[in-house]
Write a structure and sequence with these properties.
Low-confidence stretches: 1-10, 16-29, 237-248
Strand content: 15-25%
Distance between the termini: 38 Å
Helix content: 25-40%
Structural class: alpha/beta
Shape: elongated
CATH topology of the largest domain: Rossmann fold
CATH superfamily of the largest domain: HAD superfamily/HAD-like
Strand order of the largest sheet: 7-6-3-8-9-10
Mean pLDDT: 86
Largest sheet: 6 strands, parallel
Number of helices: 9
CATH class of the largest domain: Alpha Beta
Order of helices and strands: EEEEHHHHEHEHEHEHEEHE
C-alpha cells in the first residue's frame, strides 16, 4: 500500500528528531500524529486536591464544604466558573473572593494530586514519533503542575482559558493546536473524561477517547493508558521512521 510521508522536527530533552509519518494511505486512512490530553481525570486524579482547594476558599469566607454535585462541577470547569458556582447561593464580594484565591495559589494543594501510573510510559511510547498537547480548563495551575511533575518537555502546545478567547467545550483550543502542526482533524485524537471533553472533541471534529467514563459517546473507551497504547489507531506506529541528531 502506497504511503505519502510527512516530516516534522521536534526536540525532546537534548535531542532533535526528524520524524517521518506514514501519512495518507491509498484507502485514505490517516495515521494518528497528535494526541491531545485533558488534565484532570486523565493525566491526574485531582479530585482530592480540588476538594481541598475549593473547600479552603469556602471556609475562609465562613461557608460549609462543597457537596458532591459541586465537586463534580469544579472538577471539569475552569476556576472562574467554579468559584462563581460554589458561591452562587451566598452573598459575597466576587472581587474579594478572587483576590483571596489568587493570593492562596494552588502550589500547596499539588501534593494531593496523583499522576496516572502509566502516563509516563504512554508519553514515552508517543514521543518523538508523534506530538502531544494539552487542552484543559485549568488556568494558572497548569504550569506549576507540569513543572512539579517534570512533564513540561513532553508537550509542545498547552491550551488553557488564559490563552484562549473561548475555553472548552468550544473547539478553539483544538483548532489552534491543529493549525500549529498543520494537521487535519482525522490526524488527531483527544483523551478526556467528561461530557465537556466529549463536546470539545465533537465540536473540533477529532476522534475521542473516553477515559474511565463508559457513559460518554466516544470512539474508544479505556481505563488506562496501557489500553490506549493497544488501540488500533496506534497499531501502525511501526511504520514511522525516525532519525536522531544529538545537539552538540
Amino acid at each position: 500500500m502506497r504511503r505519502v510521508q510527512s516530516v516534522f522536527q521536534r526536540t525532546v530533552k537534548d535531542r532533535t528528531y526528524t520524524v517521518a509519518w506514514p501519512g495518507t494511505t491509498e484507502k485514505g486512512m490517516k495515521t494518528v500524529k497528535l494526541v491531545i490530553f485533558d488534565c484532570d481525570g486523565v493525566m491526574f486524579d485531582s479530585r482530592r486536591a480540588n476538594r481541598r482547594y475549593y473547600n479552603h476558599v469556602l471556609a475562609h469566607f465562613g461557608h460549609p464544604p462543597m457537596d458532591s454535585a459541586e465537586l463534580d462541577y469544579v472538577h471539569v470547569h475552569n476556576v472562574f466558573d467554579s468559584v462563581a458556582h460554589i458561591f452562587r447561593n451566598y452573598d459575597h464580594d466576587p472581587e474579594a473572593v478572587n483576590r483571596f484565591r489568587e493570593k492562596l495559589g494552588y502550589n500547596d494543594f499539588l501534593k494531593y494530586m496523583t499522576m496516572e501510573p502509566d502516563l509516563l510510559q504512554f508519553l514515552d511510547f508517543l514521543l518523538p514519533k508523534r506530538m502531544a498537547a494539552i487542552s484543559t480548563n485549568r488556568t494558572t495551575t497548569m504550569e506549576p503542575i507540569l513543572d512539579t511533575f517534570k512533564l513540561r518537555h513532553y508537550f509542545d502546545q498547552i491550551m488553557t482559558p488564559l490563552n484562549l478567547e473561548q475555553p472548552k467545550p468550544h473547539p478553539e483550543a483544538i483548532n489552534r493546536i491543529l493549525a500549529h502542526y498543520d494537521l487535519d482533524q482525522d490526524e488527531a485524537v483527544y483523551i478526556g473524561d467528561s461530557d465537556i471533553d466529549e463536546e470539545h472533541a465533537k465540536a473540533a471534529g477529532v476522534r475521542f477517547i473516553a477515559f474511565r467514563n463508559p457513559v460518554l459517546n466516544a470512539d474508544f473507551h479505556v481505563a488506562s493508558f496501557r489500553e490506549v497504547m493497544g488501540l488500533p489507531i496506534f497499531s501502525n506506529s511501526k511504520h514511522s521512521s525516525l532519525t536522531s541528531n544529538k545537539k552538540k
